Amino acid sequence: MFRSFLAAVAACSALAACASPYTIKTVFNPADVAWSQQPGTATIYGQAFLRTRGGDVRTCAGNKVILFPKSAYTTEIYHVYQQEITHEVHYSKVINRDPEALVYKRETRCDVSGSFHFDNLPVGDWYVAARVVWEARSSGYGLSPQGGTIFTPAHTNANEKTEVILTR
């Protein structure tokens, strides 16, 4: 019985599955991010990677990279991601995400080296998010997911390229 409890605690810690649900307090306002739908001349490019405990580098190869325009709503979500890193909140347990906000996101995929780019962006402030995940052996518990979501702010200027390195 005690061994089952320890296994549950270990799994809970590894997956942040037992983290508290989070309710977003900021109301999404489309007017705050309407600027992001305009064509522009800016580019955001970069790489997303994490280092394993053994020193190997894992990239976001094949995974989505998402670009969100900065607003009060997306800033609150950014803080949720920061709490996820410390296992206080798990993003999948955000219980009232506004689906209308997803209309304003942009997506691309990482190439095999973990590189990505977004072109034709207007001037503004953004959040860039990518998942870098892999499985690793866990003492006595088989394979467990490692890594997670990396989320960082970025700013674009007309006719310029902004480099973003997503790592922790």
Write a structural description.
This protein has 168 residues and is of the alpha+beta class. The protein has helices spanning 2-15, 72-85, and strands at residues 20-22, 42-51, 57-59, 64-69, 89-94, 106-109, 115-121, 124-138, 142-156, 161-166. The protein is 17% helix and 45% strand. Strands 2, 3, 7 and 10 form a four-stranded mixed beta sheet that branches. Strands 6-4-8-9 form a four-stranded antiparallel beta sheet. The termini are far apart.
Biggest sheet features? 4 strands, mixed
Low-confidence stretches: 1-16
Write down how many β-strands occur, each being a DSSP E stretch of 2 or more residues: 10
Helix count? 2
- Give the proportion of residues in helices: 10-25%
Give the C-alpha Rg. 18 Å
Mean pLDDT: 84
Which class do the helix and strand fractions yield? alpha+beta
Global shape = flat
- Strand residue percentage: 35-45%
Distance between the termini: 37 Å
Order of helices and strands: HEEEEHEEEEEE
In short:
By secondary structure, this protein is α+β, with helices and mostly antiparallel strands.
What layout of secondary structure does this protein have?
Elements: H1 2-15, E1 20-22, E2 42-51, E3 57-59, E4 64-69, H2 72-85, E5 89-94, E6 106-109, E7 115-121, E8 124-138, E9 142-156, E10 161-166
Parallel strand pairs: 1-5, 2-10
Antiparallel strand pairs: 2-3, 2-7, 4-6, 4-8, 8-9
